[in-house]
Amino acid sequence: MKTIAFLTEKGGSGKTTQSYNFAEFLAYTGNKVLLIDIDQQESLSSELYGIQTTDGTSVNFFRNVPVQTHTINNNLDFIPSSLAIDLVETELMPKDLRALTLTFWFEDHGNDLDNYDYIIFDCHPDFKTVNQNVAAFCDVIVSPLEPSQFGIAAKQKIETRFGWLQEQIINPATRKTLINTRLS
Questions:
Q1: Pairing of the two strands 140-142 and 76-79
Q2: What is the pLDDT of residue 138?
Q3: On the chain, which terminus has fewer CB atoms closer than 10 Å, C or N?
Q4: Max CA separation in the chain (angstroms)
Q5: Residue among 17, 8, 170, 3 nearest 100 (CA)
Q6: Per-residue model confidence (pLDDT) at position 94
Q7: pLDDT along the chain (184 residues), means of 10
């Protein structure tokens, strides 16, 4: 299973559009895909798929309770977002290793998701705790680049902050990072 996040700090750079199109393409070509909206703006959930719910949303990853998948077609399932994802920042603040909460959830509940070839995340434009969790969990981060001064600056910021995250989350015995995600 490959895990991919569409993540950058710049709004309007095409994260939602690209994650939607990439997931739909992968499903169309025969891959089993789980698309996860982890953006509190809920654009994938409400605008593209017409799903508005507070039950079983992606906020549950951070509360260690089950999520609910919605079948879009034979090869594409979807987990919607919730406005409550905003609350996760303060809920996780006092926890050690808070940037690994999503990884822990998938370790505990991941057997239910073994049938997917890809898990795709659509992220909010920031690099706070929720997106740090996604960055730590995924194999690849796709950081869409808007061809502008602001887009280039956002790309540089995400690279810097991702580097800081890698330096912070280390194996105490080896002093090497626990995050092996590739940023592209």
A1: unpaired
A2: 94
A3: C
A4: 47
A5: 170
A6: 62
A7: 89 88 97 96 92 93 92 97 87 75 88 89 91 92 84 85 85 84 82
Which amino acid does the sequence have at 97? L
36/44 Cα distance (integer angstroms): 9
Contacts of 129 (CB under 8 A, 6+ apart): 88, 89, 92, 93, 98, 99
Q: Measured between alpha carbons, how far is 47 from 50 in angstroms, rounded to an integer?
A: 6
Rounded to the nearest 5 degrees, what angle is found at the Cα of 181, between the Cα atoms of 176 and 183? 120
Alpha-helical regions (H) of the chain = 15-28, 88-92, 101-109, 129-137, 149-168
- 74 to each of 1, 31, 111, how far by Cα in Å? 18, 10, 20
**What one-character DSSP code corresponds to residue 91?**
H
Instruction: Give me the pLDDT at residue 4, please.
Output: 96
C-alpha to C-alpha distances, 31 to 24, 60, 119, 147, nearest whole angstrom: 10, 25, 11, 31
Which pLDDT value is given to residue 176?
87
pTM: 0.86
User: Which pair of tokens denotes residue 18?
Assistant: 């690209």
The phi, psi pair for 76, rounded to 5°, reads: -130, 120
Helix (H) or strand (E) segment spanning residue 5 = strand 2-6
